[in-house]
Amino acid sequence: MDLHKAFNINKDTWNKKVEVHANSDFYAMDAFKNGASALKRFELDALGDVKGKSLLHLQCHFGQDTMSWSRLGAKCTGIDISEEGVKLARRLNKELGLDANFVCCNVLDTSQHIKEEKFDIVFTSYGTIGWLPDLKPWAQMIAERLKPSGIFYIVEFHPIAWMFDYTVNPPVMKYGYQQKEAIYEEYEGTYADSESKMLSKEYGWNHSLGEVITCLVNAGLKIEYLNEYEESPYNVFPDLIMNKNGMYELSSGLYPLLFEVKAVK
To answer: What positions does the domain Methyltransferase type occupy (predicted)?
Structure first.
C-alpha cells in the first residue's frame, strides 16, 4: 500500500483532532495549566525519579505528558507528526515557563531530525504503536536514541483490544491478532469527544506482543519485564466499568486492556 498517503491521511486527522482535544474534558486543559499532571501511575511507577534525566517522548500529541515529565525535572523532547499538535505544545510550553523541546516529524524519522543527542529515557504511551506499519524501524530508532544503559518504557493498549471493530454496536471481533494488512476506518467524533462532528479518517496496524518484544530484542535492548493489566486509566472502550481503584475494566474480565514493557540498552 501507499504508506506516504496513509501517513498523510493520519496526520490530517490528528491536525483536526488537536483543537477538539484541547477543548475536551478528556484532556482537562485548565487543570493541566494549573499544575495537574497528565501522567498515570504505570509510567510514574516504572520510571521513578526522572529529575536531571534526558527524556525523549515519542508521539506526544500536544505535549501534556512531555511537559508533565518536565515538571518532574526531566529535560524533555517531544516528537509528533501533527504540525498543529507541535504548535500547541510549543505555545503551552512557553506559557507555562517550561523548557521542553518539540520536534514535528514522523516518529520513524526521529533519527533524521535528532541526529546527535542520546537520551537516558525513551518513553511512549497509550495509543501509539498502532499508527506504525512496521515495528522494526521503530525499535531500531529507539536503540539509536538511547544512551548505553538507557531505559525504554512503553505502556500501551493491549493488542487483543484492537481486534474489535468499534464503529458498530456492539463491537465485533473482526481483525487479526497478527494481521499484517492495514485497518482503515472512517467515523464521526474522537475518543476524547464522541459528540464532535469532526470526521476521523485513520489507517492503523495491529501488533502482537511477540512482535513488540522481538523487535526490541533484535534492536539490541534487554527486556526487564512485560506486564499485562485488566484495567486502564482511560475509559476509551465501550461498556467499561470503574473499579475500586478508579480504573476502568471489562465487566467480563475476559482479556487485558493494557500492557507495559521496560527495556534497557
So the answer is: 57-154
Strand partners, 213: none
Q: Where are the domains of the chain?
A: 3-264
User: For 80, what's the count of Cα atoms within 13 Å in the CB-facing half-sphere?
Assistant: 28
Confidence of residue 1 (pLDDT cuts 50, 70, 90): confident
Side-by-side strand order, sheet with 146-157: 101-104, 75-80, 54-57, 119-125, 146-157, 258-264, 222-229
Cα–Cα distance between 150 and 89 in angstroms, integer?
A: 25
Q: How far apart are CA 224 and CA 203, in angstroms?
A: 31
Distance CA 159, CA 133 (A): 14
| Percent of the chain whose predicted confidence (pLDDT) is above 90 | 97
- Torsion, Cα of 231, 20, 100, 202 (10° steps): 70
Q: Which long-range contacts (CB under 8 A, 24 or more apart) does 239-243 make?
A: 239/170
The cell for 243 is 473499579
The whole-model pTM stands at 0.97
pLDDT digits (tens, 9 = 90+) for 187-221: 999 999 988 999 999 999 999 999 999 999 999 99
The candidate with the shortest Cα–Cα distance to 120, out of 154, 150, 79, is 150
Residue 39, SS3 per DSSP: coil
The chain-wide mean pLDDT, for the chain, equals 97
The fold of 3-264 is: Rossmann fold (3.40.50)
Residues 84, 72: Cα–Cα separation, whole Å: 25
Nearest to 196 by CA among 14, 17, 26, 15: 17
Beta bridge partners of residue 264, listed in sequence order: 151, 222
Residue 167: pLDDT above 90?
Answer: no
